[in-house]
Amino acid sequence: MSPPQDLTANTKYLIPSKGGPLTACNTPKPTILLKSKEVLIRVKAVAINPADCKMIDSGHRVTSWPLVPGLDGAGVVEAVGSEVDSFVVGNRVLATFVSGNRGASFQKFAVVDEKMVAKIPGHWPFEEAAGLGVCYMTAIIALGIGLQSNLPFLRQSLPTKIKPGFNRRPVLILGGSSALGAATIQLLRLAAPHCTILTTSSPKHHYHLTANLGATAAYDRNSRSLIEDIKLATEGYRGVDAIIDAVGAARTDGRVFNAFDPNGSKRYAQVWTGDEEIEVPDGVESVLFRGRDLSKLQGGDNAMASLQALLEKRRYKLPLPVRMVGYGLEGLERGLELMRKGVSGEKLVVGL
After folding, report:
1. What is the pLDDT of residues 10-58, one digit of tens each?
2. What Pfam family does this protein match (any one) (predicted)?
3. What is the DSSP letter of 68?
4. Is 304 within the bounds of a domain?
5. Quick one: pLDDT at residue 29?
6. Which of 27-36, 93-102, 167-176, 196-205 has the lowest mean pLDDT?
7. CATH number where 239 lies
8. Are 53 and 340 in contact (CB under 8 A)?
9. Are residues 346 and 213 in the same domain?
10. What is the SS3 assignment for 160?
11. How far apart are the C-alpha atoms of 100 and 112, rounded to whole Å?
């Protein structure tokens, strides 16, 4: 059971300095005047992301300390700005948050821009919805910028100018059992229903990635015959046209580039992990994508509204099973430590 709640105070879980311990700090409940398009959320559950650990441990993209971490979460709308028309007090929502202070999710109350919020359908518990935002957003960028694929489910204010994409050409997604990989598989299936989607993961995750999320086939990432198996799944044994690297797999296993069709587009989309960009062989087009590239994507402002529609129509599934690791400070500490050791095939969630 979750601990009793004091609804008159805001508990922040912050890092005083780089590499420092997570500390609970009680402050008054936010009473500041919201900007016109802002939403105040009473956070009920948060998900742990690798980026949280990088910010805490190495100061990755941190401009000042102390830092309140947290990019993912879900809760209840507590207040709305004067021009917010999509949400009202009491709505159950998920959001993508901004680490730093007032906009981070590792606290009881957080302030988020309206366009970064989506309503949660009644059949989704907070614990499952808490981890949807970041992986969904990054997957959209992987497809829209990394592959230059059309995104028909994304509400766009202008006609698309994006290339036709990979509707029938084979695509390999490295790291299918990561949160980003799992989200990318099902969004690519929505965007390109006839695409041959191949992916890699530990064998124990293969059924979920194929039967539940829509991958055509999944392969053991450590198999000696990995490249041959991938090519066998493509027409004429020619190989794949594009690779989306959701985990930086090519950094330690360069043979994945042999899966390309020599006469194909050979487009390699790699997520930015904070490390140096992965070098690619001659003739391979490398595209680096990151979560903060949303503003570069046409229709990006409508991304969360589009997620809300997908959830309501039951077209988007939980990418990975949720693992609840506790509540409050103790739960956050445990979740961060587990993330540092490496997590695959599940999403770590903490109740607040």
Report:
1. 999 999 999 999 999 998 776 667 899 999 999 999 999 999 999 999 8
2. ADH_N
3. B
4. no
5. 74
6. 27-36
7. 3.40.50.720
8. yes
9. no
10. coil
11. 12
Best CA proximity match to 127, nearest among 327, 308, 291: 327
Same domain as 261, residue 326: no
Both 268 and 155 in a single domain? yes
Compute the Cα dihedral for 194, 197, 203, 206 and give only its sign. Answer: negative
Dist. CA 229–CA 65, nearest whole Å? 49
Task: Give one word for 87, left, alpha or beta, with left for phi > 0 and alpha for psi -120 to 50.
Answer: beta
How many angstroms separate the CA atoms of 138 and 141, rounded?
5
Range of the domain at 20: 9-132+318-351
End-to-end Cα separation, the chain, in angstroms: 11
C-alpha triplet 117, 292, 66: angle, nearest 5° = 80
- Say if residue 69 is preceded by a cis peptide, omega within 30 of 0: no
Identify whether 322 is part of a domain.
yes
Based on the fold, state whether residues 47 and 179 are members of the same structural domain.
no
- Name the strand (E) or helix (H) holding 172: strand 171-174
Return the amino acid letter for 221: R
CB atoms < 10 A from the CB of 145, how many?
20
Look at residue 287 and tell me if it is in a domain: yes
What CATH number does the domain containing 88 carry?
3.90.180.10
| 54 in the same domain as 152 | no
Residue 283: inside a domain: yes
Q: For residue 140, give the nearest of 323, 305, 280 by alpha carbon.
A: 305
Considering the domain architecture, whether residues 189 and 70 belong to the same structural domain is answered as no
pLDDT tens-digit map of 178-213: 999 999 999 999 999 999 999 999 999 999 999 999
Q: Nearest Cα to 45, choosing from 163, 118, 132, 145?
A: 132
Amino acid at 220: D
58 and 109 housed in the same domain: yes
On whether the CB atoms of residues 245 and 269 are closer than 8 A, the answer is yes
